Amino acid sequence: MNQDIRSEPLPSAALFSPDMDQGAGQRAYRLTVWCLAAAAVVLMAYPAIRMGWNYEIDNTEGWNAYHQLRAMAGLPLYEGGSPLFFNNYPPLSFYLVGALSLPFGDPVIAGRILSLLGLVAICLSAGSVVRSAGGSRLDGTLAASTCALIFATFIADHVAKNNPQLLAIAFIMAGLATHLGGRPGIGRAAATALLFSIGVMTKHSLICVPLVVAGDVLINGRGRPRLAFFGFGLGLAVLCGGAMWVFAGKAFFVQLLASRTWEVDRSFLFTTEILGQFQAPMAVVGLGLIHFRRHRPAGLILAYLGASLAFGIFYSGGAGTDINVYFDVFIALSIGAGLVAHLLPVRRARAVVALALNAGVLFYTPFSLGRFGWEMMGEMTYRERLFQEDVDYVAAIPGVALCHSHLLCLRAGKPAFYDPINVLQAMIAGRLPADTLTGMLRRHEIQVVELSDPPRHPEDENPGLPGLPTRFMDFPDDVFEALRQEYVIDRIGISGRFYRPRTDQSPPGK
């Protein structure tokens, strides 16, 4: 008797067969990765839209813009301007952004565009490294999406701002992807060294990846490709150093290598803050890369993760550093996420691992979306209007202006005059007199001072109370005392407090 086989139930063993289980695991992994990618696209829209608004994202934007304008005007970058406005960055980014500013008419907008494109390139390079290891398109997408999500949630204020770091990292990561992208050869080795050189000439502190790759080439490289990498790299270093000596002279090296204070407690607190935010991906990726370290390039990325954390710990103790010293850690975690997912033998575990790696990001996403929505509903427009009011106020005051917000002075038509963090470090190190700024304030040589930072030790604080080290300190307490005695607060705006010289005989503080 014939029966319709469609009416027969499947054997129970077939319901739980390995093939069906693996298929379900792959579908869950695919859905997880594409949801993470969609979230990354949505969250990246915020810094992309913010690029065109005329207010300061970070006080380095105006600092970079001043140098970009000098580069496009053919003026020297390391001398010839204000003796209190330094330049401790390599020159390449100033010329690149300056050239792009010609069609846009504004170096700030051009720098923001290059910064956003730099992050996109970094995410693509992270995915490319995973694909070069044999990972699937989903594994590469997971790496790229994890990278984008970390930057778009935890450090959105560093995305699409006029600062060269993401642009520089884009060149460095392109070099890493080139190094791992195929069979070793002379051309590939030379291209890797060239990309590393461009990256370092854009931001000189980005030496972590080049050192890790150099170690890999030294240990695992062979013959002519190894010789090409080190020979071409050394030749480029000599060429760049010689060019800087010819075109910029001694001033370039003096300013680039100027010392800064370093505090162990600052490094400790900064590092524990980062580890607290990224403990889940650090644990999952770290253990996964240790387990798969013999699978190339998992061992190399493990070395990258460890070295980047070490560099971050060291850099974070330096004065004026920010979370950007840990960018390499975030990128290494993103690449590691894709590699661990690729190398996991059990497909059904990949979706769980992808979610665990992005647990912190997902918990923070509602806040990021809320901020995005709030600013789009009018907060951006309001902030832009308030910033313009501050610009108009400063522009109407003749004479010398000292702006904590460099973009404020730039928009007000004031020349570059005072670089707070580098002048402070120069005074601490004895390269400038300790009363450089307070002397000018007591002589009323500055007609308007804009500050956003409070004093490190407020007047009503118990002097014996131990406190945590401040994340940033651009002005010492004696500056605030000089302002209290010689200046009055004339305005409070979105940029901070505005001080004008006293013209009456009223007691200080009145």
Please describe what this structure looks like.
The chain has 510 residues and is mainly alpha-helical. 64% of the residues lie in helices and 4% in strands. The protein is built from 21 helices and four strands. A four-stranded mixed beta sheet has the order 1-2-4-3. Strand 3 and strand 4 form a beta hairpin. The radius of gyration is 26 Å and the shape is globular. The N and C termini lie far apart (106 Å).
Key attributes of the depicted protein:
disordered N terminus, 510 residues, 4-stranded mixed β-sheet, single chain
Structural class of the secondary structure composition?
Answer: mainly alpha
What is the N-to-C order of secondary-structure elements (H for helix, E for strand)? Answer: HHHHHHHHHHHHHHHHHEHHHEHEE
Stretches where pLDDT is under 50 for at least 5 consecutive residues are 1-17
Strand content: under 5%
The biggest beta sheet reads: 4 strands, mixed
What topology, given as strand order, has the largest sheet?
1-2-4-3
Question: Mean of residue pLDDT?
Answer: 90
Provide a count of the helices.
Answer: 21
Number of strands: 4
Terminus-to-terminus distance: 106 Å
Helix proportion: 55-70%
Shape: globular
Global Rg: 26 Å
